[in-house]
Write a structure and sequence with these properties.
The complex is a heterodimer of chains A (115) and B (112). Chain A is an all-beta fold. Chain A is 0% helix and 57% strand. Classes of the chains: A mainly beta (115), B mainly beta (112).
């Protein structure tokens, strides 16, 4: 079965330190990979995506993610965390074909950035 | 551009009733997907519509159905509501699979 795993329910980092939020997936074919963020009382917002090409993709708010095909991982990173980065982060994988697609989400990782 | 809008934002229904939720995608987006978000199950894919056709469906019972109109607006219907249907229902639109999805604020459904 197709699945997306975010192994950490919560990640705690100090402001100014680098952060990593992990994501691995088990999806056949060549899935498209996404990261979304959900702030309290706000909808999900797109951060970045990997479709093809360079394994390191850059997105909004200074976030980047590294795609590793052999490890089927797509970890989210940021060199220097901000308190305002505290939110719920979702990894998502889209798969399918021209006939339609499905998107499955990981369970989410809550990021706490401490001042 | 206006974002994805969903109506109503909040809804309280009784077990056994039915409910219809509405979603208006971003102008030009023809793909609309629906998700159920609960604390226990996270975000679960319900279905995806493109040009009025349901192209994919998640693992939900037949009580969950939807449709898309020619202007890409979509509705989701849940019949014979159960307590477990209480959730935040999110609608998302996109240009296609390779593009990111834009999410609406959701409809919070409470079944009593």
């Amino acid at each position: 079965a197709q699945s997306v795993a975010q192994p950490e329910d919560q990640v705690n980092v100090a402001e100014g330190n680098p952060l990593t939020v992990k994501c691995t997936y088990s999806v056949s074919g060549n899935p498209y990979l996404f990261w979304y963020v959900q702030y309290p009382n706000r909808g999900l917002q797109f951060l970045l995506k990997y479709i093809t090409g360079d394994n390191l993709v850059k997105g909004s708010y200074g976030f980047e993610a590294e795609f590793n095909k052999s490890q089927t991982s797509f970890h989210l990173k940021k060199p220097s965390a901000l308190v305002s980065d505290s939110a719920l982060y979702f990894c998502a994988v889209s798969y399918g074909n021209t006939g339609g697609f499905k998107t499955i989400f990981g369970a989410g990782t809550r990021l706490f950035v401490k001042a | 551009k206006a974002g994805v809008t969903q109506t109503p934002r909040y809804l309280i229904k009784t077990r056994g009733q039915q409910v219809t939720l509405s979603c208006s995608p971003i102008s030009g987006h023809r793909s609309v997907s629906w998700y159920q978000q609960t604390p226990g199950q996270g975000l679960q894919f319900l279905f995806e519509y493109f040009s009025e056709t349901q192209r994919n469906k998640g693992n939900f019972p037949g009580r969950f159905s939807g449709r898309q109109f020619s202007n890409s607006r979509s509705e989701m219907n849940v019949s014979t509501l159960e307590l477990g249907d209480s959730a935040l229902y999110l609608c998302a639109s996109s240009l296609s699979r390779s593009y990111e999805q834009y999410f609406g604020p959701g409809t919070r459904l409470t079944v009593t």
